[in-house]
Amino acid sequence: MPLSATRLKRRPPTxxxxxxxxxxxxxxxxxxxxxxxxxxxxxxxxxPSLQWPKVSGVVMRCDQMYHSGRHAYYNIAANYxxxxxxxxxxxxxxxxxxxxxxxGGGRTSAFVAAHPVRSAVxxxxxxxxxxxxxxxxxxxxxxNHLDIQCGGVALVGGWFMAVMFRRRLADLKATLQSAEARxxxxxxxxxxxxxxxxASYEPGDKRKLNVFPDKECLMEVLGxxxxxxQEWKPEDRVIDATGCEYRLVKEPGKKSYDLDPTGExxxxxxxxxxxxxxxxxxxxxxxxxxxxxxxxxxxxxMAVLMKCIDxxxxxxxxxxxxxxxxxxxxxxxxxxxxxxxxxWLQNHLFQK
Length: 352
Fold this sequence. Notes:
By secondary structure, this protein is of the alpha+beta class. Helix content is 47%, strand content 18%. The chain has nine helices and ten strands.
């Protein structure tokens, strides 16, 4: 179930917020160097082709192709033949960094006009791998320089933001450590609950429980201040801190949901059973919830249990590792894909 913005703003900060902030912090630090590295890497990768020997070849095909869609573009379908050491080769690369010269129509149409079928053409080939050949040698000077320049801007801006963000994280860490110390001094009987809280129960989902700190937050999720954040199912229920159960009703012509009492009452034991099932799904010890309620007065257990559910993470332990892996793959994509993106932008925005 999606979380509302109000809930994220109103709930107390957690260690999950701190570690998420650390991931963002390191992302800001490395995004600029990733662009700079890719620009330099692409330039060094393609520059040796300027020293390749050339041989005369013949154009066999050179057609301009149009690809429609949301991001329409042109490209060249080209074939050319060349002979090296009495062996005939067929090439189709135009450049190393843009093998089919995809981009704006003006650039591709000019290339087609300059390379009619059966015309002679200079072919530059790798002497160690003659099958690797191009018609235009060298790197993408403009694109690589743009990568490096954007990386420099991102480096300065990212590091500045990281310094500011680091201070906030330090304050957040101190706040969390202080809150833990106070909670330890108070002991389990003084645990804060959610006396105005509500829990949603969605039996059709893997994780069945979610908690909202007050009715205003719940009403926002149900669509009373805009569009509802999800479509609720007929079997979904909402339970308040006293255990009263409500079904979710959408009147004809309305986008929002209203609460309709069912007359049923949940005990904290029933809510605890569902919470323990969610804890097992999150790879957490379900016994922890029960132990936190041992020394809590009976009339406070429902509210305290909702607080415990609200403190549960949004996913299993491997979610954090998965997030780190995603960021690593993202930076690799930036390094090896940023050049292609900038080439596309240049061709579409400046050379049409």
